[in-house]
Amino acid sequence: MAQLIIQGGKKLNGTVRISGSKNAALPILAASLLTDRPCEIRNVPNIGDVHTMLSILRSLGSELEFHRNVVRIQTKQIDVSRLPRDLCMKMRASILLLAPLLARCGKVDLPYPGGCVLGKRSAYSHVSVLETFGAKQKNKADSLAFSGKFSATHMTMPEFSVTATENAIMAAVAAPGKTMLHLAATEPHVRDLCDFLVALGAKIEGIGTHRLTIFGGKKLHGGQHAVTGDYLEAGTLLLAGALTRGTVTITNIVADDLDAFVYLMRDMGVPIVRTKSSITVKPYKKLEAARRLQTNVFPGFPTDLQPPFCILLTQAAGDSLIHETLFEGRFKYFGELEKMGAKIKVLNPHQAVVTGPKKLKGKEVKSWDLRAGAAMVLAGLVANGTTKVTDIAYIDRGYEKFEEKLRALGADIVREN
Predict the structure, then answer these.
(1) By C-alpha distance, which of 198, 258, 200, 206 is closest to 229?
(2) Residues 276 and 211 in one domain
(3) Please, are residues 405 and 233 in contact by the beta-carbon 8 Å criterion?
(4) Among the three residues 226, 249, 264, which one is the final residue of a domain in this structure?
(5) What is the phi/psi pair of residue 205, to 5°?
(6) Are 377 and 280 found together in one domain?
(7) Cα 292 → chain centroid
(8) Where in the sequence is the domain holding 205, given as residue range(s)?
(9) Which pLDDT band, with edges at 50, 70 and 90, does 114 fall under?
(10) How many domains does the chain divide into?
């Protein structure tokens, strides 16, 4: 198994161009099934989850190529019976195939998706969405099976679910008539999916708000689209710069997408300069504890940046409260961090107090999931001695050339197979 070996104590400096967003690329690739015309999707990150999605699409009948972060894809016909169950079970984002396959084929039988284990990630919202649009669910213990045709509807989302909102948007684009979606998720990747569908000829009003109006049923043409920059990768690399007290600039992003993140870093004492499409962190003089890191739906603090941000809290003076409102399984990495010398008190499955500053020591630690793995790498950057991060397949699922970008900034990090 591959692992990352990190020698801590190196100050990071420089500029990094952020890759395309994993969480935008995956729904956009799924949505390409809604048209039988050619699509060109640029700025697609070369990561594990993208390759898994592309393999699924090839199995279904898509003709595609992936070269230099550009996917060219056309799906003239779909054989839904060839849906590869093993690949679907490997990745949570396979659930995004429900709406486009139902729209094109009138039926779908998708095994329950896999991915990072972050708690009780129910498919209830997806079932509710598809049934509201007129699909009929078949009773199956190990899969999500539906049949039928979509009809336009007015619905209030049962919860702020990003992927359920994305399935609802794709269903609405396919359903003839006017659909209104209330309490739609507004994350940057939801916005980007809408922009892609508009490029194919869909009519969507209210993009970026909690209320979407979609006029569906129109045959989509082909089109081109560039995936938005990954604000989660951006936040991770900004934290790497702040932790090592260096000057790091990230580009190719929408800086406003990180408002809550930037606010909290500034509140702790990290100097930050931002433009419309870039953010720079500079060395702090004194790092104060965060009064409260509370994750929330966008535009609140992203749950995916909670584990990497926790490393910064270990270096801050005083007690920082973490309130993880979305996933009750997000604290598994605490045990690894405590091996390195962190002081963390878990209050309940959703709250913990981090006390700092603590000098971290290099240890062998594992990646519990994608973002926890990135957090362990950041801990290694600031720790004394050598840190070995194992199970890095999780990291490869979501970060493109992660160690290469860190190395370009001055980190002492190598991959061993």
Answers:
(1) 258
(2) no
(3) no
(4) 226
(5) -110, 145
(6) yes
(7) 23
(8) 22-226
(9) low
(10) 2
The reply to whether 203 and 104 lie within a common domain is yes
**Start-to-end Cα distance in the chain:** 6
CA distance 333 to 354: 13
In one-letter notation, the amino acid at residue 339 is: K
User: Could you tell me if 186 and 147 are in contact, meaning their C-beta atoms sit under 8 angstroms apart?
Assistant: no
DSSP designation for 219:
P
Percent residues over pLDDT 90 in the chain? 92
Q: Are residues 9 and 64 in the same domain?
A: no
33 with 178, same domain: the answer is yes
Domain match, 259 and 298 both: yes
Among residues 267, 260, 273, 280, the alpha carbon closest in space to that of 318 is found at 267
Last residue of some domain: 226, 253, 269? 226
Q: Chain-wide mean pLDDT for the chain?
A: 96
- Residues 266 and 220 grouped into a single domain: no
Same domain, yes or no, for 148 and 259? no
Q: Which amino acid is at 188?
A: P
Q: Are 251 and 239 in contact (CB under 8 A)?
A: no
Query: Where does the pLDDT of residue 118 fall: very low under 50, low under 70, confident under 90, or very high at 90 and above?
Result: very low
pTM for the predicted model, two decimal places: 0.95
Residue 386: phi, psi to the nearest 5? Answer: -100, 130
Residue 208: partners with Cβ closer than 8 Å, 6 or more residues away: 186, 191, 194
Active site residues: 116
Residue 27 burial (C-beta neighbours within 10 Å; 0-12, 13-18, 19+): buried
